[in-house]
Batch of 2 targets.
Target 1
Amino acid sequence: MEQEKLILDEISQSSEKKAEKIGKRTFILIAMIVVGAASAFIGYSYYENQLLANATTHLLEHYNSNYVIQNLQGTVVNTWVSWNLLQGQVLHVSIVNDANLPDDKINAVKNAILSNETITVDNSLLHEGPSGTSSTRYKGWEGALADLQRSPTKFFIPQTFAISEESNGAGDIVITLTNDENPDGLSGFTKSISDGNQILKSKITIYDASQLSSLQLGAITRHEFGHALGLAHSTDPSDLMHATIRTDYPYISGCDIDAIKGLYSGDERSQVICQ
C-alpha cells in the first residue's frame, strides 16, 4: 500500500507538472497571437493611410478649383455668405450625370456628402504636430457637421442632405458631372447665387468627369461642396479647401468645421484660416 501511494503521488505530481507546462505554453501562444494581431492591425492601418495618400497625391496633383458668389443684382460678392434655413431644414442636392458615369463613381460623389466615416492621421504626416499625436478627418460633410447641432449659431447649419439624380437640375445644390473641359483648366467650379448674405442656390460643375477616378471625384466633390456651403479658400496649403489640393489626405478637417461654425455664427470671413 505504501508503494502504491508513492506511485500514485508520483503520477499526480507528473500530471500537475504537465498541466502547468501546457498552461504556460497556451498562455504564451495566446499572448503571441494577441500581439501579432495588434501589430497587424496597426501595420494595416498605416499601410491603408499610406496607400490612400500615395494614390490621392498622384491623382490630384493637377487639380485646380475656383468659385464665385453672385447676388441677384449681378455683382460679385466677396463678403461672407451662408444658407439661411429653418431649424432642421434639409438641403436638396441634385446630381446631373451628363458624363454618363457608372454607379461606383456616382456613389463616390454621394459619399463625399453623406458619409459618416472618419480617417485618423498621424499629425507628423500633416505637419501639424509630433509623431504619435493624431487628427481626425471626415470623409463626408454630413458626418463632419453632425456634432455642430450642439453648438448654437446665428444661422442654422445645414446638416442633412437629400440627394437625387434629377436631370432637370432641380435642387438647392446642383452638381453637374460633364465631359466638357474648362477653358481655364479648372477641374471644379462652384457658382452660388445669393440675396445679400443669404445663399439661394449653388451650382457645382466637375469637368472632364469621365477621366476622373472615384478617389478624385470624392476629393473634388468635398472641396466644391465646401464652397456651396459658403466657405472660401483656405490659407493652409495642406487643407482640403486650399485653392489647389496639395494634401495627401483631402478630407474635411477640424479647421474646415470651425470655419463653417464661424461663418454661420456671423463671422464676416468665410476664408478657412488654420492656426
Target 2
Amino acid sequence: MQPINPLDGRYYEKTKVLAPYFSEQALMKYRVLMEVKYLIALSSFGKIALRKFSQKEIKILENLYEKFDDVSYQKIKDFESVTNHDVKAVEYFIKEKLKKTTLKDSIEWVHFALTSEDTNNISYALILSDSVEEIMIPEINKIISELNNLAKKYKNLPMLARTHGQPASPTTFGKEMKVFTARLEKRMLGLQSIKIQAKLNGASGNWNAHLAAYPKVDWMKFTKDFINGFNQGRVSKLEANLITTQIECHDSYVAIFDTIRRTNTILLDFNQDIWRYISDNWVNQKPKAGEVGSSTMPHKINPIDFENSEGNLGIANALFEFFARKLPISRLQRDLSDSTVERSFGTAFGHSYLAYISLLRGLSKISVNENKIKEDLLAHPEVIAEAIQTVLRRENYPIPYEALKELTRGKIIQMEDFAKFIDTLKVTPKIKLELKKFTPLTYIGFANKIAGK
C-alpha cells in the first residue's frame, strides 16, 4: 500500500495512536459496541418480548467488540461488498456471530427499530468522547505543563516587550509564557464541559417503529437512560437529544471542533512568538547529533518543530472550520453528505495531534538566553519614558507626555539622557530620586507575580 495521506505515510508512527479511534476498522468496532450495548439494554428493559440474557450470554455479546480484530473487520467488509451499506453489514456480522450461540432466538432484535444514523451518531459520539479524553486533552495538558514550568522558572527574567513590533514597556519571559497557559487552560475547561449529544429515535426522529411495536412504552425515557449509560467514568459525557430529524444535528460536534480550533489558534500564536524569540537569539536551540539544518549551510539549526506544528495546526483548523460550516446543515430530514465528512474527523485530529507532539519536541530542545534578553532590553532605555511621564502626570506636571515624546521619539538615547532630563525638571529632589530609580530591568509591573500564579 502506498498512502497518499501524510498521516498514514510519513507521519504514521507519530499519529498511529489515533488509529483505535478514527480508522475505518475502529469505526466498525464502535458500531458493533453500540449495537451490542443496545441489544443488552433491550434485554434488560423488561417491558418488551425480548427475554433477559444470562451473564454468559452478555459476555458473548461483549466479546464481539472487546475481541474485535482484523478478521472481524474483514468479515464486515465482506458483507458490505454485497450490501453496499456499512451499518447493515455490521448488523449481519452480529447476527452471523449469534447464530451458533444460545442467542440465536434473539437475532431479529439486533438493530431493532433503529435507523443506521442511530448506530452511527452514537458511535461517533463515543469516538469523539474517547479520543478527546484519552488523547487530545492529555497532550494539550503536557504543553500547558511545559509552558507553566517556563513561566515559573523565568518569572523574574525581565524582557523587552514589543507592540506593533516596536520596543514597549518591559515584561518578563515567564509572564509571556503564562499568558499562553492561561488561555489554554480556559479552553480545556470548556472542552471538558461540552456534552456530546446523541439520538436514538428512528428513521425520522419520532420513534415511529418503536411505538408501532410497543405503543405503551416510554421510549423517550429508555433513550435517555441508554445514552446516559455510556457516561460512567467519562469526563467527556454524552447527552440524549430527543428533538431531531433522522440525524442528530451535530451542533455539539461543532462545539468540540470549535474549541479545539480555538486551542489550535492559541498554539499557532505561540509557535509564531517562539519562532521570533529564536530568530532574535533570545531562545537557543540545542543541536542534536546527526541532524542537519540545511543542505548547504552547515551552521543552521532551524526551528523546524515549531514550523511543523504551525503548518499542521493550519491544516487542522481549515478542516475544523469546514466541519463547522457543513455538519449543521442537512437537506430536509437528512442527506448523506455528512457521512463522508465524518470520516475525515481523524484527519483533523491527526494534524492537531501531530502539531502538539511537534511543539513539545521543540520545547524539549530550547534554552532561554538570559544574557541576550537582558542585553536587548538594556539597549532600549526609552521604554521607561512611560513610567516617567506617568509619575509626572501624578504630580500635575505640565504636559509631561509631550516632554518625554520630544526627548525619546525616533531617537537613540541612553540612561544618562534620562538623568540629565530629570535634573532639568521643576520637581522636588524626592521626585527626581524616584524618577531616577526606574530602569528597564525593574520596570516590569506585576509581570513576575502574574507569571507565578
